[in-house]
Write a structure and sequence with these properties.
Elements (H helix, E strand, L loop, with lengths): L1 H13 L5 H20 L6 H33 L10 H37 L6 H13 L2 H13 L2 H17 L16 H14 L9 H25 L8
Length: about 250
Amino acid sequence: MNDLKRLLKTDIIKLKSTGLLWIHLCVPLLGLIVFLGYYSYTSWTDFSKISAYLQVLCMIFPILIGIITSIIAEQEHMAGGFQNILVSSEIKNLSFASKYILALGLGLLSTILSVIGFYIGFSYIGNNIFSFNMYLFIICILIGSNLFEYIFHFFLSFRFSKGVSIGVGIVESLISALFLTGMGDGRWPFFPCAWSIRFINSLLIKYENFNNYVDPSLNLGIKIAFVGTIMAFIMVLMWFTKWEGNKAEE
């Protein structure tokens, strides 16, 4: 535990040279300015405004995760070809855990800023039909359903290259947008990039109670997301333990 704290402290210090903190602060603020500015004069219903904003948040998550994980991996690669984390199997696992915790912490900060910032801002320009607790629940869904994505993109970033991680993130964002439609019905539980947007959409539908409709794949999606995330974390730790710093260059 002390080694993990030390590695986490070191990774936090490294933030100063990456600009990751600024990315997690500026992107949500820019999004809030754009959406709240547009919503201040558009004639959409309050429900449509809120649902559209939350859906866009879900869509951009894979791209941002791809960028963030690739920056972290690239920093380690440039600082001696991953030599700082190849000392021993134990250090490898702890180093990955440290970077994973750091990325999740920054992601949580960014998500809180995006969601709670919207809740506060929208209260001045429209009728906030959702309670504050509802927005807190949405934060939990956004982070929880993207735990797998962070694991997956860390693997892509360390094993391949930043181009692969970001490229896959772009494709995943497109898939999540497509799977919000009928194209994703019955298929989305098997695509982690679509978990957050379908979970959020199910929550919105439940709130509106349109014909008492419940996505028949919802329970399956929850089970696959829970089990899949745990298995992915175990598998990437096993891979990371045997990894020797080999990286497919761009």
